[in-house]
Hints:
By secondary structure, the protein is an alpha/beta fold. It has helices spanning 5-10, 66-73, 76-81, 94-103, 113-122, 167-178, 202-208, 220-226, 253-258, 260-279, 281-296, 302-310, 320-333, 348-356; strands spanning 54-60, 85-91, 108-111, 128-137, 139-143, 158-161, 193-196, 213-217, 230-234, 245-252, 312-314.
Amino acid sequence: MPVNRSTFLRRGIAVVAALPLLTLAACGYGSKSTSDNSKEKVAAGSSKIDGLGSVKIGYFGNLTHGTALVARQQGLFQKELGATKADYATFNAGPSEIEALNSGSIDIGWIGPSPSINGYVKSNGKSLKIIGGSASGGVKLIVNPKKIKSLKDVKGKKIATPQLGNTQDVAFLNWAADQGWKVDAQSGKGDVTVVRTDNKITPDAYKSGSIDGAWVPEPTASKLVAEGGKVLLDEASLWPDKKFVITNIIVRAGFLKDHPKAVEAVLKASVEANKWINANPDAAKAAANKQLEADSGKALPANVLDPAWKSIQFTDDPLASTLNTEAEHAIKAGLLQKPNLKGIYDLTLLNKVLKAEGASTVDDAGLGSS
């Protein structure tokens, strides 16, 4: 799977297909969450960072965004931001979050690699920077065991992915191509039928029999298993060291330039959250689930939460070389043409935070700002 980086970076930049923007059911770009069960309090006597009244943070209601869920639930964002208020918006789709970032509706967000790449390329490198990592893994191919008993049985079946051009859609199209199967990326028709289905309704689609399986992130994968599905493939098995970026942290380029102290504060909270998650997995799992309940009104049951959480690795490392490979997969699928990703990363502040913590710094795989 590795990509020749020097060849990759010499290529020009163009997008052949703008990935569709999904509109959230909630008003505006994201659903504002106003729960009061977290530990967030604006510290008395503290000062505003960079004079900012607030920093707007976006994330998904997925366990793969567990860093943000835990940091919010534990009050870590607010602790580091002092008297600058941490405001939030939750999203269902990466393109919607990119749109919110570009409009200024959010400043910093947790998001998958494919929308990050697409947003960067479409703006000619001007709209965003990836400033840190968050999670690896947590993506599986779940199938109906009565219809699919082996990998070769996937041919001719209907497999759901969350959205045209999203991270899991690109991964499944690439895997199908590696099997020698032909699929039209836009229509999803071919030797296997790709059915783009919102994660919220994928379990119902599975129960109704309208799909035969799904390539999806957690907790949707474990929800399907709870409905009788079988794990046919864990995407981690396809990657070197079983690691690949599933969630990273992005920031508006202008916000990073104008308010580096605020960005550093959010990164401090993220690093602290990941440290606590890895030291206290059970407590962290409960905290993430509590925030999911606050955001969506419903907690995950143990038979979904436990296996889902176990399959995700939380890391400050953005795993930059795997983002490079994921871009190559999008090119192969016909969703992206020859991007130049040089400059997509700026890990300066993250490495500053890591050094202060006595932790190892992380690498941008040659894709950092010059």
